[in-house]
Structure formats: structure tokens, C-alpha cells
Known about the structure:
Blueprint: H1 2-6, H2 13-16, H3 22-30, H4 32-38, H5 41-56, H6 73-81, E1 88-89, H7 106-118, H8 131-142, H9 147-150, E2 154-160, H10 161-176, E3 182-186, H11 191-199, E4 203-207, E5 209-210, E6 215-216, H12 218-227, E7 233-237, H13 250-263, E8 266-271, H14 281-284, H15 286-293, E9 298-303, E10 315-321, H16 325-343, H17 349-359, H18 361-392, H19 401-404, E11 409-411, H20 416-424, E12 428-429, E13 435-437, H21 446-459
Parallel strand pairs: 1-12, 3-4, 3-7, 7-8, 8-9
Antiparallel strand pairs: 2-10, 5-6, 9-10, 11-13
The protein binds ligand KET.
Amino acid sequence: MASLAFSSTSASPVALRGRPNKLATGVAQSGACHVSARGSDRKARLFITRAVAVEKKVSRFEDVAMAPPDPILGVSEAFRACTNESKLNLGVGAYRTEDLQPYVLNVVKKAEKLMLEKGENKEYLPIEGLAAFNKATAELLLGADNHSIQSQRVATVQGLSGTGSLRLAAAFINRYCPDSKVLISSPTWGNHKNIFNDAGVPWSEYRYYDPKTVGLDFEGMIADIKAAPSGSFILLHGCAHNPTGIDPTPEQWTKIADVLEEKGHTPFFDVAYQGFASGSLDEDAFSVRLFVERRFEVFVAQSYSKNLGLYSERIGAINVVCSSSDVANRVKSQLKRLAQPMYSNPPVHGARIVANVVGDPNLFSEWKAEMEEMAGRIKNVRKRLYDNLSQKDKSGKDWSFILRQIGMFSYTGLNTSQSENMTNKWHVYMTKDGRISLAGLSLAKCDYLADAIIDSYHNVH
Ligand code: KET
């Protein structure tokens, strides 16, 4: 770049080609070309100093626009900057204790201690990840005695948590089913759209949430899935739908499976909350197991961010249940082929934690107890919030939808301006779609939150 500054404005076709170049413009404005031609040393030095100064201000990335903050993770940044004592962070779905502190599960600490004692090394993992983890994760999802596992029809590849696993599956769809689109629920976890956009997979939405009932628009959902081109991928939340907290009933799941079968669609499950919705790993895997039982080929992305609290370890998996072991082998080989140029191979730490917890009967039962406790705390907070809202709100509004929702979140039905009022007036940090993370709420704060919700709901429109 320095030679560009010395070589005078006119001598820089490279710099001038294409879009207007600010370096060239800046030098020309200083009159440097004329000064340097006269050969005055002092002035030439001045030119060089000025030109370099101008050059420093210029970047080839000048036209790169500022990206908008993430609608979920950006909320935590705003929360950290807030100095009000009553502030509450109900934005990101991350579990907090009753004292609103982050929580490292005891089983995780124990598994880490075991790992240290064993003196595990830090060698690269294979592209597909840690074998013991892949086995444990598929068994946890489908049940160890599931026919698909017994007959080796499941292609499992360790992924960079739920997000990375979804992204890998999206890359697979883009490469091997380029004519298919993905249907996602309206609304859904915001990153789904980014994932499919970046993978070049076309998507559209199916109706899911009914604002009138703050419940499931089942008829709309079925109609939209029916109307999608045959052979579409239907993205479904395995349990604890994010952001609504509204799940289909077992009967509705059966009906959804009927329609997918009729249309030759492929179910693509996002399972980020197994064990967190009901407190039971098996109960929360009901939907996935139903489709596997009915012999669908199924995609399932799994995450251990929430149920084992391993948010920053980035541990999860993509499982593709196939119709034969031969297909599963080939699918797995292609998933590895897609993963390798992206990140070569996945990190080992979280994988070892999961493998140790699931593989050790004592740790496994301790984990289930801790998960039940976490899910139980969220349920208690949900109930307390409902009680406070019903007692305080004299308008007769029915808040019971909060009790019908499950998982970490409640979709309050507050619109954007009402949600903004929650933050601006009450210092309650939440996403603008009206979602609150009950995992970030304590029993003690329910009273304050109920006041904030009632004020925002009735006084802001
Ligand atoms: N799927 C769903 C439905 C989901 O809510 C999340 C995270 C993920 C996948 C990905 O999680 P990962 O940590 O990559 O395994 N949701 C929370 C955090 C976030 O937005 O990143 C949230 O909704 O708050």
C-alpha cells in the first residue's frame, strides 16, 4: 500500500479501477502530485507524510456495513451495560440458579475430575468426533434398544453444538437435495433462518402460533405442511418449542406424522431441550422416537448446551436415521466430507463430559436428578408468575396460557412496543418478540415481573 501513496494519484490504475477510491481522492485533494513534480525535498516529505496519513484512514473494507446485533445474544450485551438494580436478564435461554447465578452441574464437575485423573490427552479427534460420545448421544436420543441403532441405520457425527449440527445438516441438504426446501415454524428460533440462508437452502414458513389463543394453530400447521412441495424437509422442535413453549400433543404428533408420510416429506428435528421440558429424557424424545418407529428417515440435531449446561463447550450432534445401514454409512461419509473443510474435527472436552456422564450409571442417574431439579425450578417460577399475574391483574384477562407452555421460555404475547417498555421502563431485558426466559427468573422476582408485564400489556399498545 505504501508504494501506492508514493506513486502519485495518476499512476495508480489498480487503486482507481472499479469503485471510487478514497486514497486516490485524498491524495489528489492535497495537491501532492504537483508538489512532488517540482522536486522540493521538504515538500516531498510533507507529501509522503500526508499521503501516508490519508492512507491510514482508508480500508479496503470501507463499504462493509455494520451488522445488526443478534436479537438474542445482543440482549445480554445491553443487560450488562444497564446499571439499574432491579434489572433482569430474561433474554438468552440459559439456566440460572434461584440466586440468578450461572450453574455448572455437579455431574459435569465430577466428570471433569475423572477426566483429569485419567490424564486424557489432547490429540485430534476423528472428523466424526469421539466414538464414545456418538454412541451415547444416539442412544440417549433414540433409546439404546431402538431398532435403528441395533441395525446400524443411524449416521451420527459430533457437531459444534446444536447450531453447528443444524448447519452441517443444512450443508448436506444443499448438496444432496438441492431442489428441496425446508419448512420452518412461524415463529421459530431466529437462527434457523440464518443457518438455512447461509447454507443456500430455500425455506418458507408454516403456521404454528395462534395469537388469539396464545396456543398452537394446528389446522394452519397441517394445511401448510400439506401444501408444501412433496419431499420437503419439515423442521420440527423435538420438545419445548422455542420461542412459544407450545408443543403438539401426542395425538397431534401422530397426525403430523401422517401428513409427512402422505407427502413424502422428511422430518428434521431440532432437539435442544431434551430433559428440560418435562424433566424426563425419554418423555422429551417422544416425538423423534415416534417418527423413527414409523420408519421415516429422520434428521435430528442435538445440543447439550441446556440439559448439561455445556453452553460454551459447543457439544452436540447430527444424527441421520436412514432406511438401511448401507445408506447410513454413505450419508455419514458425506457429512464428514462436509465437516472437514469447515473445521477439520470437533473439540473433545464436551464430548468426553457427555460420554462420561451417560456412560457411568451413577453419574447418569445423578444427571437425571439434577435435570429434574432444573426443570422443576422453572416450573415453580412459571406457576408463581401465573399466580402473581392472576392476583394482580384485575382486568379479568386469562393468563393461564403461561401454565400450558413448557420448557425454558414463556411467550407472553407482548408486542414489540410492549416488550420495549419492559426493558426501557422496567429494566427487564427480553427479546422483542415477547419471549421471556423463565430459566433466568427467580421466585423472588416474579412479583416485580408481573407488575412490569401488567403495566406493559395494559398501558402500551
Ligand atoms: N435450537 C434451538 C431451538 C435453540 O433454542 C438453540 C439455542 C439452539 C438450537 C442452539 O443452541 P447451541 O448452543 O448451539 O446448542 N437457543 C438459545 C441461545 C441462542 O440463541 O443462541 C436461545 O434461544 O436463547
